[in-house]
Design a protein that fits this description.
The chain is of the alpha+beta class. It has one domain. Helices cover 31% and strands 25% of the residues. The protein contains four helices and six strands; from the N terminus they run ββαβαβββαα. The strands form two sheets. It has a four-stranded mixed β-sheet with strand order 3-4-6-5, with helices on one face. Strands 1-2 form a two-stranded antiparallel ribbon. β3, α2 and β4 form a beta-alpha-beta unit.
Length: 150
């Protein structure tokens, strides 16, 4: 499993890019869904340790990060959310749902940021510029380039 932590500013300009991969073995020993959750949590711990910048907001893709990661596996001291498109996705009872334009949904690991806060202004700027999902495409390209020789 490969992953990246791509830190961007409110204009979606790159500030930091960390990447890592982990090998997943003995999948038959895990209950359904647990292996992915544990692998994602381990990968995130590695990425957080490697990051140079501490972002104000962490955005993850809901279809790649299980809903309980931030409730049960990781304690993150910044605002955290998972973003999803119009498709129906499960979210944890500890997450707060926020609907955005263009049929995007945000699942906050905790309460949504208040109006006027740094996190709310950052999120609103990214949404206005179409930079909420697009950086994930660049991160995927970066991973492909980083692991092209392996």
């Amino acid at each position: 499993m490969r992953g990246a932590l791509f830190v961007v500013n409110s204009r979606a300009e790159p500030l930091d890019f960390s990447f890592a991969r982990i090998d997943i073995h003995a999948s038959f020993l895990w209950r359904a869904g647990e292996l992915k959750r544990q692998a994602v949590a381990a990968l995130m711990r590695t990425l957080f340790t490697a990051a140079i910048h501490v972002p104000d907001l962490l955005i993850a893709l809901a279809d790649e990060v299980p809903p309980t990661i931030f409730a049960e596996d990781l304690a993150v001291m910044i605002a955290v959310c998972r973003v999803a498109g119009a498709g129906a996705l499960a979210y944890a009872s500890t997450e707060a749902l926020e609907e955005l334009p263009d049929a995007q949904h945000i699942f906050w690991a905790g309460p949504p940021p208040v109006s006027g806060s740094v996190v709310r202004e950052l999120l609103d700027a990214l949404v206005a510029r179409g930079g909420l999902i697009e950086p994930f495409d660049r991160a995927e390209l970066g991973l492909g380039e980083a692991y092209a020789s392996s």
